[in-house]
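Service request form, structural biology core

Requester: graduate student, group of Dr. S.
Request type: structure prediction, single chain
Budget code: on file
Notes: please return the result as structure tokens.

Sequence provided:
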Amino acid sequence: MAKQGFFEQHWSDTQARPAGGVSYGRGFTISWQNGPRGADGPPDRGVNGAFVEDVIDAVIGRLEFYQRSEFRCVENSLALEHLKAAAERLDARTKDRQARQVEGTHAQ
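Core staff response, request fulfilled:
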């Protein structure tokens, strides 16, 4: 989807699995995680880019900052509800993958 002032390029590996990419626009640049996070070892093993969860958390933080200011509004509150719901679903996915011992791998 083309957005004015916004660029995104998402890469796939040789098996057509998501494998990193970049998104950038006015005031931001995101280099996405390329490949799975390492399943064994320290939590940052295999981390080489941003995760969707981190970006959502950053947006939540910014909107919560607005909500503590004169720019508090219903629209921000509703957006926060949806972003927090998205973050919760992604966290549930991670916990499920951890329970099945497939987190940090390409396994479904």
